Amino acid sequence: MKPDASKTLKRNIFQRLFGKCATHEPKDPSCWTYSDNRIEIDLHKASELSNPGGAIRIESEDLPERLLVIHGDDGNYHAFRNECTHGKRRLDPVPGAGTVQCCSIGKSTFDYDGNLLGGSAKSNLTTFPAEVTDGRLVVSLP
Predict the structure, then answer these.
(1) What is the 3-state secondary structure (H, E, C) of the chain?
(2) pLDDT in tens, 82-129
(3) Contact residues for 76 (Cβ-Cβ < 8 A; gap 6+)
(4) By C-alpha distance, which of 142, 131, 127 is closest to 91?
(5) Is residue 7 part of a domain?
(6) Using one digit for the tens of pLDDT, what is the confidence trace for 47-83?
(7) Cβ density class 4-17: b for 16+ within 10 Å, e for less
(8) How many domains does the chain divide into?
(9) What count of other Cβ atoms lies within 10 Å of the Cβ of residue 30?
(10) Residues 27, 48: contact at Cβ < 8 Å?
């Protein structure tokens, strides 16, 4: 699937001004664990990731990074530092576009490899390797 940077999230001006992202933390907070610079997500517990287009935010004071984890429109899982390179706002997937987008007015848009496609950002996103093993998604952090 070729990324479509022309698609944007439908957001009102207040959501964009205040940087209110659409992606939520997991409904089941026990779906993930962190140790040895790895986040393991039990895909049976993370129902938000069961279908392409689904996403969760993983945030905790115990983590070195805030993450956005998505089940991409390409069928693969992708993990990003959940921080736009322009203003440090959070990111959301754009369903059906093969992209992620900043939740602010600049609408910076990136492909699944973190490459900047358009918007106010000046550099690419940080991505992390994500691999499925035995029903668990393993995200490796540096």
Answers:
(1) CCCCCCCCCCCCHHHHHCCCCCCCCCCCHHHEEEECCEEEEECCCCHHHCCCCCEEEECCCCCCCCEEEEECCCCCEEEEECCCCCCCCCEEEECCCCEEEECCCCCCEEECCCCEEECCCCCCCCEECEEEECCEEEEECC
(2) 998 887 788 999 988 999 988 766 789 999 999 999 988 989 999 999
(3) 112, 130
(4) 127
(5) no
(6) 999 999 999 999 999 999 999 999 999 999 999 999 9
(7) bbeeebebeeebbe
(8) 1
(9) 9
(10) yes
For residue 97, give the amino acid letter. Answer: A
Which CATH number do you get for residue 81? 2.102.10.10
- The band of 16, judged by pLDDT with boundaries at 50, 70 and 90, is low
69 residue type, one letter = V
57 is a domain residue: yes
Output the pTM of the full model. Answer: 0.90
The pLDDT of residue 21 is 79
Residue 54's identity, in one-letter code, is G
Distance CA 16, CA 13 (A): 5
Q: Which domain holds residue 89?
A: 13-140
**Nearest CA among 99, 84, 101 for reference residue 11:** 101
